[in-house]
Design brief:
Blueprint lengths: L1 E6 L2 E4 L4 E9 L5 E8 L6 E6 L6 E3 L7 E6 L4 E6 L8 E9 L14 E2 L3 E6 L1
């Protein structure tokens, strides 16, 4: 089992920045590929960014490319999502997810993940 706890959400003005953190406990964090997803108000969950277990490979959704950066610190069992140039359409509950996977792979589909956090709210005002 892996437990995931997100933090860092909040209210920010358009153009501002936030950094989300996802702290993992339980099994060996470094053997898990990680991802960030979000659920905007009234919409389904959507992919945001993913990172391989080593941190070597990352991938961002087109909607956040050039603005968001995913990273991880395996020594701290934590994955981050740095969000810059935030827009009102980034408003959502943000979730981190973990998939037991070695190698250099990242995953972009929610059904591929094994564990999920409880989510953290990000609200961007115009």
């Amino acid at each position: 089992q892996v437990q995931l706890v997100e933090s860092g959400g909040g209210l920010v003005q358009a153009g501002g920045s936030l950094r989300l953190s996802c702290a993992a406990s339980g099994r060996t964090f470094s053997s898990y590929a990680m991802g960030w997803f979000r659920r905007p108000p009234g919409k389904g969950r959507e992919f945001v960014a993913a990172i391989s277990w080593s941190g070597t490979n990352t991938y961002n959704a087109d909607s956040v490319k050039g603005r968001f950066t995913i990273s991880r610190d395996n020594a701290k069992n934590t994955v981050y999502l740095q969000m810059n140039s935030l827009k009102p359409e980034d408003t959502a509950v943000y979730y981190c997810a973990a998939k037991n996977s070695g190698g250099s792979y990242y995953y972009t589909r929610s059904y591929e993940y094994d564990y999920w956090g409880q989510g953290t709210q990000v609200t961007v005002s115009s």
